From TrEMBL, chain A:
Cofactor: Mg(2+)
Residues that coordinate or bind Mg(2+): D380, T382, D823, D827
Membrane protein topology class: Multi-pass membrane protein
Subcellular location as annotated: Membrane
Membrane spanning residue stretches: 41-58, 64-82, 264-287, 307-332, 880-901, 913-933, 963-982, 1002-1020, 1032-1056, 1076-1097
Listed NCBIfam families: ATPase-Plipid (TIGR01652), ATPase_P-type (TIGR01494)
The UniProt record lists the keyword Ubl conjugation: no
Residue intervals of the P-type ATPase N-terminal domain: 6-69
Gene Ontology cellular component terms for the protein in this record: plasma membrane; trans-Golgi network
Residue span(s) of domain P-type ATPase C-terminal: 849-1102
UniProt protein name: Phospholipid-transporting ATPase
From TrEMBL, chain B:
Keywords: Membrane, Transmembrane, Transmembrane helix
Record-stated family: Belongs to the CDC50/LEM3 family.
Compartmental location: Membrane
Keyword Hydrolase among record annotations: no
High-level lineage: Eukaryota, Metazoa, Chordata, Craniata, Vertebrata
Taxonomic source organism: Astatotilapia calliptera (Eastern happy)
Protein name (Swiss-Prot/TrEMBL): Cell cycle control protein
Length: 1189, 340
């Protein structure tokens, strides 16, 4: 247990608590070099090259100058070191900035302005409004009544609403009395530092009395003080001990599947290297016994080294010579390419959102090629697919539909931002943000059409909205569900302004005239009733019941005289439902006074009944809500973000499966499913699994049985089986699971559930409660199978943890690359779990963005991120790896062949400098150029043909098979590069009769052939020749000759006589026609087969890429016309209402109508009253409990 | 709307580079390029191949093995004895003129000048005339850096030590009289080797530079006395030494020994007649199954005789033509870019 005493530094110092300075940096000036080097050598590749370097320093073994490895290693190490240094400097800056923030600290009886880092545990600090909380504080007192403090915790948990903290009364009395605070000597005992944000346990001992402390009394570092003038706090945890810092633990380091594959391949290459060396060692042993032992007259053995030992040493010598199969620059280059591709994402203007000035951001630079392999997308709904804005979109009043615009020829007109809006200037209370386009409705309402007026009167009366007047004349509605807000706002703009309410009255301004209605009863909403009503008395004394609710509910309770109207309205409703709008039907009923008195009496009795109150009330409601007159219907749009349906359609075409995971209610989620075209009317079936109530499951199974938790698992299993049987009758009962082993040394076991073929499209909707069971061990494969057979999967009312579990499930059993996209703190878990996490940025909460790998402002940018950037990155990375392995195999295997002609003596066929420069200088730039700029088809075509994305998902461009083909290709080229010059130079002489086959000139010839061949191969692989590519390729080729001629020039020889063994080789060979003829022959023999093979391959089985590339050549693509999604009329109910039970009581209960300060929102989320429990899903909270039956 | 100017502060630059819209050439392996390309390359190759073959056929080459492996061959006695300067001679007859300029090579086979330790066994600084390396040769020359009495060996190392030391004289017998054919040993090494890479210390007389050093163990004469007839052809710039030091890349190689001096009767080359090569047989090769030979050859624009290149070009050229026909058939059958 931790113990500290206020204002007693000597006491507190004895415990050596951490002070408030934070340090996230890793190094300082002196420790940088040793620590950083140590870190770097912990990497296997670097350690391996260090080992090689050491081998090369042993003279008996060294077959190559140490420079060859040393140079590369130094370059690689220094690039990484520079990057680390920059990162660390930034961290230092950040730390410094935070540590140097100022805060008032109470010291020696007065407030002193001190730096954060000098704040000690036990100090008392004073915070002012909008200041960051310095450390984890025990709240002592505040400026607000009841010692309340409002804080925003966005930085901690991403929630942007205000939270309330309250100090103990005993400390609150201290107020801002400096003397009293200075004399405060309370002793705090609490739990040691930990990372639980929602728990705090401790006691405060003051004057011999003990007070319990909980989370409510603690201000955490990372919060911001809001709406509070000042407060005093006692520092409990400082710096690294604070909960914020304890939480900022290591983030999971994500690696791409290509990374894993590369690691495996590098291991394979190690094996390959070892076997090559072993073969050569055996060769050397044979040579030493047969030839070497008799050649000793010219080449005596070194003392103490006999044939076996010599062979042993040769093994290591060849490890050095052939080490270039594993190029040290591989990892650096890979990182570099990914970095480049990440920059292109940052720079893309088409993923920049001008409205809030947010560019796309690649926050992780190491994952870019994985973007090209996504198979599953898990998306949040609110804030990701939708804008979280409800708009009153359409309505049908008395059988006439409003909002659809028709031009003169009767064609429906597309409504855009430019469409002329209805002018509401006649109404000085209108909300300026509201827009509507159908002028006829305004005309109707202004002309005094009774039905229209009644329609809007209903909307202005029948709701639970709270009005709020912040400033004079500025009316704001506090709607607990956004649907209601939209409806009441619509009524307001059409001249029925809801002004204020008391428990008994509702004040409305009707067409400029203030009217006060007496509120007699609110018949509250609940999930079974799916409707709500109010009973009001107008000033004229007319009693009316106004009801709004689900069409299915209302239509059952209409007066028979409405039948005809009902038919017309139903048609309209079907249209709205087809458009994915949320619909409500509206009805009214005039009541007579006597009946009302009687009913009121019974209502009162029922509402105080001790037993069966709910049932009795329901009965009463049922009784009065009948024979109603239909007024019409409303359609509210849960505004999707721009381009969401199109994006989803595109992604679906790219064979990416999209699952929506949302905390919302089933109806609203389903509605969004339809409006963004994930669920479609033409789908064969949409399975709904919502076992949150026993009744639900019963209904589904026609089994009159109460289902306990245990059994509901059973039931689910049935549901899944039935669903599967329907989708695919011949599907096996048991899932086909393919077990295999992957990973380093094949240690990792994997199980993959196979995809199954299904005829037609199906959808699956499952709610959180069912999901909880379905995710259990025995059921999860059932869930996965069924879900994967469906086109669309929507999980509603899921908790953050379940989101993560779903992602995990797919990740584990599908072995597919997953992407999670979300905007809120409740998406963080799935963002972290998925292979790639995407955060929607530019909104208030930053938590999702902070834990994401990529962030941008709009969901629609996802298609560009995946279909353009992801695809390009993947192709580039694959091309890079393929080419890189190819070029190093070719390079190294030539040495292998030469071994057979030099007595297996580890004589290198190339010059040391060439080996040093080959990867780092001669071939570095062209391959980087290709892998940064290459595009097989441009972005527009990529988006036009989403099918181009499929090869990435199937991992087609770089896999083990491809690797073997690169190996074989490298082998072939190395054979040509060695044996053609060998054959043609065997007895060759120069045309002046002098020798030409000396070792230096042979080396030079091979180097030149090699370089020309690999550069030409690169040129064949490059699809997109920018000026940069041209200059890189040509500069590297010319550069090679220039460097060769310079290195072997007289001048260089005079300066370093023994450094350049190839001195003179360039000019003595390059002037020989037979040398050039040999180079030409070698080059064409390496290249022509590739050209022929590719050509024939394209002819025989052209890939989609080939087709699009040819198509692109012949047609210049004009931007594809925006496709309008075809909507059909729907026969399902479009009802969806994010309202919840309990608000009716609330608005009629007096306690909530007391004028409260403007921090109402804060109270809404903070209180423990019923209102919090019934928080609509719209205000998302982290812990979402499934509704109990 | 106060921050109007900073409104789009984060908007990425609209450049062709950042938007990945750099103008680019996007070549495609289309039938229109590939098939004619193959035909053209094929035809060109066949043309070059024919030219190479004709040229190569016109070059005269005469190879004479004198290892003395088999009993009865002229040098078999020498090859079996260890006597220094063992003499033997080879006779050959030219029926036609051996077109000049004629080059006289010696060839060795199964000889690993390209063995790593062999190749490293020299001291570049010493050969560059650095006197400090005379007194302390590089350890890379080991075991030929010091002799048994710890005196430095100059030039040190295995390469120098194993220098080829057979000598040849060529005589022509015309109607009973024997004439010496003059052999020209000047400028047979690379210009760069002679003028830059190898250099004698600037001490006169040259002999003094070698004070305190010993000659390589296998050598009969010290470096400064390699050519008694020409004082400038001594030390490290001795042409034979330079030729030997230019290490062969492959185990079978030939090195230039002399040129036939194109004067008098030999202006046009070696005329028809009977010739004798008198060999001073010193170099032992039979121990490691090596072979020695003498080669006379003339050259063309493309160097010495090289059948391989010509044949290779012909074969590849024909294959290209065949390939182009195959591709044409495939293309005619599938017509990829056209069918859609």
């Amino acid at each position: 247990l931790l113990c500290l005493r206020a204002n007693d530094s000597t006491f507190n110092l004895s415990f050596r608590y951490a002070n408030n300075a934070i340090k996230t940096s890793k190094y300082n000036i002196f420790t940088f070099l040793p620590l950083n080097l140590f870190e770097q050598f912990k990497r296997l590749a670097n350690a391996y090259f260090l080992f090689l370097l050491i081998l090369q320093l042993i003279p008996q073994i060294s077959s190559l100058s140490w420079i060859t490895t040393g140079f590369a290693l130094i370059v690689v190490l220094s690039i990484t070191a520079v990057k680390d240094a920059i990162d660390d400097i930034n961290r230092h800056k950040c730390d410094g900035q935070v540590n140097n923030r100022k805060v008032d600290v109470l010291m020696d009886g007065q407030l002193k302005n001190k730096k954060w880092m000098n704040v000690q545990v036990g100090n008392i600090v004073k915070l002012e409004n909008n200041e960051f909380v310095t450390a984890d504080l025990l709240l002592l007192s505040s400026s607000e009544p009841l010692n309340l403090v409002y804080v925003e915790t966005a930085e901690l948990d991403g929630e942007t609403n205000l939270k309330v903290k309250q100090a103990l009364t005993v400390t609150g009395e201290l107020g801002d009395n400096i003397e009293a605070l200075a004399a405060f000597n309370g002793e705090v005992r609490c739990e040691p530092p930990n990372n639980r944000l929602d728990k705090f346990k401790g006691t405060l001992t003051l004057n011999g009395e003990r007070y319990a402390l909980n989370n409510d009394k603690v201000l955490l570092r990372g919060c911001t003080l809001r709406n509070t003038e000042w407060c005093f706090g006692l520092v409990i945890f400082g710096g690294p001990d604070t909960k914020l810092m304890q939480n900022s633990g290591k983030s999971i380091f994500k690696r791409t599947s290509i990374d894993h594959l590369t690691n495996i391949l590098v291991l394979c290459i190690f094996g390959f290297l070892a076997s090559m060396c072993s073969i050569l060692t055996i060769g050397n042993a044979i040579w030493e016994t047969n030839e070497g032992s008799v050649f000793t007259m010219f080449l005596p053995r070194e003392p103490g080294i006999d044939a076996p030992l010599s062979s042993f040493l040769i093994f290591w010598s060849y490890v050095i010579v052939l080490n270039t199969v594993i190029p040290s620059s591989l990892y650096v280059s890979v990182e570099f390419i990914r970095l480049g591709n990440s920059f292109f994402i940052d720079w893309d203007r088409k993923m920049y959102y001008p409205k809030n000035d947010t560019p796309a951001q690649a926050r992780t630079t190491t994952l870019s090629e994985e973007l090209g392999q996504i198979k599953y997308i898990f998306s949040d709904k609110t804030g990701t697919l939708t804008q979280n804005i409800m708009t009153f979109n359409k309505c049908s009043i008395n059988g006439k539909a409003y909002r659809d615009l028709y031009d003169f020829s009767g064609q429906r007109v597309e409504i855009t931002e430019r469409t002329e809006r209805v002018d509401f200037s006649w109404n000085n209370l209108a909300d300026p943000k509201f827009s509507f386009h159908d002028h006829s409705l305004v005309e109707m309402v202004r002309s005094g059409n009774p039905e229209t007026q009644e329609f809007f009167r209903l909307l202005s009366l029948c709701h639970t909205v709270m009005p709020e007047e912040k400033k004079e004349g500025e009316l704001n509605y506090q709607a607990q569900s956004p649907d209601e807000g939209a409806l009441v706002t619509a009524a307001r703009n059409f001249g029925f302004v809801f002004l204020s309410r008391t428990p008994e009255t509702i004040t409305v301004v009707e067409m400029g005239k203030q009217v006060i209605y007496e509120l007699l009863a609110i018949l509250d909403f609940n999930n079974m009733r799916k409707r709500m009503s109010v009973i009001v008395r107008s000033p004229e004394g007319k009693l009316t019941l106004y009801c709004k609710g689900a069409d299915t509910m209302i239509f059952e309770r209409l007066h028979p005289s409405c039948n005809k109207l009902m038919e017309v309205t139903t048609n309209h409703l079907n249209e709205y439902a087809g458009d994915g709008l949320r619909t409500l039907a509206l009805a009214y009923k005039d009541l007579n006074e006597d009946y009302m008195i009687d009913w009121k009496q019974r209502h009162h009795e029922a509402s105080v009944a001790m037993e069966g109150r709910e049932e009795k009330l329901d009965e009463l409601y049922e009784e009065i809500e009948k024979d109603m007159m239909l007024l019409g219907a409303t359609a509210v749009e849960d505004k999707l973000q721009d381009g969401v349906p199109e994006t989803i359609e595109q992604l679906a075409k790219a064979d990416i499966k999209i699952w929506v995971l949302t905390g919302d209610k089933q109806e609203t989620a389903e509605n969004i499913g339809y409006s963004c075209n994930m669920l479609r009317e033409e789908m064969k079936d949409v399975f709904v699994v919502s076992a949150n109530t026993a009744e639900g499951v019963k209904e589904e199974l026609h089994e009159p049985k109460i289902i306990t938790n245990n059994k509901s698992g059973h039931v689910l299993c049935h549901i899944f089986r039935n669903a599967r049987r329907k989708m695919c009758p011949e599907a096996a009962e048991e899932p086909t699971v393919i077990k295999s082993r992957v990973g380093l040394f094949w240690l990792k076991k994997t199980e993959t559930v196979q995809d199954e073929k299904v005829d037609g499209d199906y959808g699956l909707i499952i709610n959180g409660h069912s999901l909880a069971f379905a995710l259990e061990k025995n059921l999860r494969l059932e869930l996965l199978r069924t879900a994967c057979m469906c086109q669309t999967v929507i999980c509603c009312r899921v908790t953050p943890l379940q989101k993560a579990q779903v992602v995990q499930l797919v990740k584990k059993y599908k072995q597919a690359v997953t992407l999670a996209i979300g905007d809120g703190a409740n998406d963080v878990s799935m963002i972290k779990v998925a292979h790639i996490g995407v955060g929607i940025s530019g909104q208030e909460g930053m938590q999702a963005v902070l834990s994401s790998d990529y962030s941008f402002a709009q969901f629609r940018y996802l298609q560009r991120l995946l279909l353009v950037h992801g695809r390009w990155s993947y192709i580039r990375m694959c091309k890079f790896l393929g080419y890189f392995f190819y070029k190093n195999f070719t390079f190294t295997l030539v040495q292998f062949w030469y071994a057979f002609f030099c007595g297996f003596s580890a004589q290198t066929v190339y010059e040391d400098w060439f080996i040093t420069f080959y990867n780092m200088v001669y071939t570095a730039l062209p391959v980087l150029g290709m892998c940064l700029f290459d595009q097989d088809v441009n972005d527009r075509w990529s988006l036009y043909h989403p099918q181009l994305y499929a090869p990435g998902q199937k991992n087609q461009y770089f896999n083990k098979k491809a690797f073997v083909s690169y190996l074989i290709h490298g082998c072939y080229c190395s054979l040509i590069i060695f044996f053609i010059p060998w054959a043609s130079m065997n007895d060759a002489v120069r045309n002046d009769g002098k020798d030409i086959v000396s070792h230096p000139s042979f080396a030079f010839l091979l180097q030149t052939c090699l370089l020309i061949v690999v550069h030409t191969q690169l040129s064949l692989d490059t699809y997109y020749w920018t000026a940069v590519n041209h200059s890189f390729v040509w500069l590297s080729t010319i550069g090679y000759f220039a460097i060769s001629v310079t290195m072997y020039s007289n001048g260089m020889f005079y300066v370093f006589p023994s450094s350049f063994p190839l001195f003179g080789a360039a000019r003595n060979t390059l002037n020989q026609p037979n040398v050039w003829l040999t180079i030409f022959l070698t080059f064409l023999l390496c290249i022509l087969p590739v050209v022929a093979f590719r050509f024939i391959f394209i002819q025989l089985c052209p890939t989609i890429n080939d087709k699009v590339r040819y198509k692109m050549r012949t047609e210049e693509l004009t931007a594809p016309a925006p496709r309008r999604l075809l909507r059909r009329r729907s026969t399902r109910s479009g009802y969806a209402f994010s309202h919840s039970q309990g608000y009716g009581d609330l608005v009629t209960s007096r306690k909530f109508l007391i004028k409260r300060p403007l921090k109402m929102t804060a109270l809404f989320t903070q209180t423990d009253s019923s209102i919090f429990q019934n928080q609509p899903q719209h205000y998302r909270t982290i812990a979402e409990e499934p509704q109990s039956p | 709307m106060v921050k109007q100017e900073s409104e789009s502060a984060n908007r990425p630059d609209n450049t062709a580079f950042t938007q990945q819209r750099l103008p680019a050439w996007q070549p495609i392996l289309s039938a229109g390029i590939v098939i004619p390309g193959f035909v053209l390359i094929g035809l060109a190759f066949i043309g070059i191949g024919v030219a190479l073959l004709v040229t190569s056929r016109s070059i005269q080459v005469l190879e004479l093995d004198y290892t003395g492996d088999s009993n009865g061959s002229p040098c078999s006695s020498c090859s079996q004895s260890d006597i220094a300067n063992c003499k033997c001679s080879l006779n050959f007859t030219l029926t036609t003129l051996f077109q000049g300029p004629v080059f006289f090579y010696y060839g060795l086979s199964n000889y690993f000048q390209n063995y790593r330790r062999y190749g490293a066994s020299k001291d570049d600084n010493q050969l560059y005339g650095d006197l400090s390396s005379f007194t302390s040769p590089s350890s890379s020359c080991s075991p030929y850096n010091y002799d048994s009495s710890k005196k430095p060996i100059v030039p040190c190392g295995s390469i120098a030590n194993s220098m080829f030391n057979d000598t040849f004289t060529l005589t022509r017998t015309v109607s009973g009289t024997t004439n010496n054919v003059t052999l020209d040993g000047k400028g047979i090494a690379w210009w760069t080797d002679y003028n830059i890479k190898y250099r004698n210390p600037s001490v006169t007389p040259l002999k003094n530079a070698f004070n305190g050093t010993v000659k390589p163990i296998n050598w009969a004469k010290p470096a400064y006395e390699l050519d008694a007839s020409d004082r400038s052809n001594n030390g490290f710039v001795n042409q034979d030494f330079l030729v030997w030091m230019r290490r062969a890349a492959l185990p079978n190689f030939r090195k230039l020994y002399r040129r036939i001096d194109a004067s008098g009767d030999y202006q046009k080359g070696l005329p028809a007649g009977n010739y004798t090569i008198d060999i001073t047989y010193n170099y032992p090769v039979r121990a490691f199954n090596g072979a020695k030979k003498i080669v006379f050859s003339n050259v063309s624009w493309m160097g010495g005789s090289n059948e391989f290149l010509g044949i290779a070009y012909l074969v590849i050229g024909s294959l290209c033509v065949v390939m182009s026909v195959v591709m044409l058939i495939v293309y005619a059958k599938f017509k990829f870019p056209d069918e859609e």
